Amino acid sequence: MSLLPRLNFSALTHNAAKWPLPGKALLGCALAGLVGVAGELVYLGPSRQRLHQVEAQEVALQQQIARKTALAASLEARSRQLELMQAKADELLQALPGESQMPGLLEDIARLALANGLLVESVTPLDEQPFAFFHEQPVRVGVTGVYHDLAMFLSSLGGLSRIATVHDVALRRDGKLLRLDLLAKTYWHAQAGWRGGPVAQGQPFVYDSSGLRDPFQLLAVQVDYLPGRPSRAPDLTRPRGILEGLALDQFEMVGTLSRGLQAFALLRASSRVHRLAIGDYLGPDHGRITAIHERSIELMELFPDGQGAWLERPRTLLLNVNS
């Protein structure tokens, strides 16, 4: 048997009008709290979550609008840049010849090598490489000479009137000389019947060796290098001496001798010492001794420019103080 009386809510609510004021206030607060909790769970919670999502979307849309506004502001400048790039591409495409220029490139390579006193060891054309808008014809070249002559040769390749590029440049010592191997490429348009326009010549790079030393030689045996100047042709019928069959870099100045007012230079090559006076010939480029000093000798070399003329180039051979 229960000791507590059962709570009859119907009786309570029926008699609520007779309740004292504090009871009515307590009941009202309880009902208001119940309604607030139910409203929060059913209506306000999901609405508040949707509000946060909308606010996040608003921030993302504002950032996107800012980016697109900046892009639209630079659209005109980008369009002008694209037009300039397209015009430059069309100009370069128009400069491509309509057929292979490999024979002309081979002639240019031989001419430039001869003009710079180099020995052409090998010229090997490789297979043609077709691309979407042009054909590429590579040729592998090997030349031998001294450092500054090789640098002048590369500089001259960059100044050719035809479109040619140089790749895979390798430099190594070959005895007392240097061996230069490179890959040269020439190009022409792939369209049949194409006639290319003239190539617009920019300002070519010209190698200037003034004040530069050969990094492959010791300071004691440096040969001063100066660009060539126009000169009269040498006497090609003159018998060549033994010392004219050796490259100038194979000689070392080891001292001087004097006999009265006449001075002699002592040069060593192939384990032999040779005595030379002013006017003697030396080296394969018609080099002739013009002055003998205590620590150096001066000579003048002649070499063809590849266009029917001759150039003269002064050189200085220094004393090898370690000899």
Automatic annotation (TrEMBL):
InterPro entries in alphabetical order: PilO, PilP, Transl_elong_EF1B/ribsomal_bS6
Organism (species): Pseudomonas cedrina subsp. cedrina
Record protein name field: Pilus assembly protein
Lineage: superkingdom: Bacteria
Pfam families: PilO (PF04350), PilP (PF04351)
GO biological process: type IV pilus assembly; type IV pilus-dependent motility
